[in-house]
User: What shape does this take?
Amino acid sequence: YIRLISEARGEGLSDLESCGCVCSGSDGEGRPVLVLAPKLGLVTGQRMNAQLRRIAQLFVREADRLVSGPYSLVYCHTHLSVLSQQSVVYEFYKILPRKYKKNLSKLYIVHPTMMIRLFFDVGVRWFISEKFYRKLTFVNSIASLQSYIPPVRTKLPPSLLHMEDSAMGVVAAPFMPPLSQSFDPTLGTTRMIHKCVTYLRETGSVRSQGLFRLAGDQMQENLVKVRLYGANYDPDAEATVCIGLQESAPGYSKDQKMSTVVVTDPDTVSSLLKMFLRDLPEPLITYAVYADVMSAGRESRSEDTLMQILNRMPQEHVSTLEHLIGFLSEIAAESLENNMDADNLSRIFSPTLFRSPVLSENTMEVFADIGVQTAVLKTLITNRMKKSGGLELSGLKLSEKMSDRLRDGVRPTGERHFEHRDLGVNDEPAGENR
Assistant: This one.
């Protein structure tokens, strides 16, 4: 054990740290939780014994600071055959000091095979200690484990959740459920869009450079897709996606199938927001009004006409668009810090909100349409900023009123449909001020 600790301090283990084969957290009572998932650290084609020793080095290095008091250990046997050999597990167990065994409160074995059950039932119960055996709990799924250990307290590696999803044969559908099913009238948008917007706002990410430009964690995005995408809206599946650590995850029964995904990285949350809007089966700017909106943009018609066109969309689309425009205007008001003014935001979000019902093979026509879409979205954002007092001109804010209100927790409010007073239309100054 002392030799392992010494080797761990001198060995470069960053590759194992990034893969998540050893991680930590806490349980519902605040006790430390140590998670060991050897499969995540094994690479095909390399010597097995050498790999297992490096994993053991990382394990003892992380565990040494946690096991001085009561703690829980989660051993994930996921997709693993080598450690079903009793001798390997027992040899590692023998080198651990007494404090590891004495202070262990619970040992959870996730995805146990018949061999690993037999090893613990016979080897541990009869040859080690009956008292130690009583600390043991077998769990057949990660969701069952999360009924004991809250997922927001101990974040499991996304690759481990992905392995279980693949073993279950679940795959993501190509689109989100229709907005008409997932829309929440009390929020003015869907719950997931509301969660993403709230998290980015409350964590101060609206002032972060690179927001909506940097890619998030692709594996976490895929995990979210598997849980949320489909032809029909499922509120139970939606509850398995937590945005931020402050959100309380629901309780689970031990036969719950889908594990809970916890997303806390702002770049991943911003990517999810774009993904939810991009993958709607009917785009946020609906097919029915697309041609009229584009025509109004090309002919530079009055904002009056544009609002009338947008208000012909279904109420859930109008309300969600207003919710989004309000949030984007908040971000644009902080452009001195985040470099995301109305022009940059409209370039990023216009392909997400607009989708032509007819695919064109004319490249020049496609680029021209993108320009019109960007101009329309920029108009909506800047008009909302005028109403909120945060209009930008040549990179300088004319007023700090909006930012002050946002920092005080006061947000612009309005009707659930677009009106001229909500977007600042007809408030444009004339003459030299214009």
About this structure: The chain is about 50% helix and 10% strand. Residues 250-255, 390-434 have pLDDT under 50 and may be disordered.
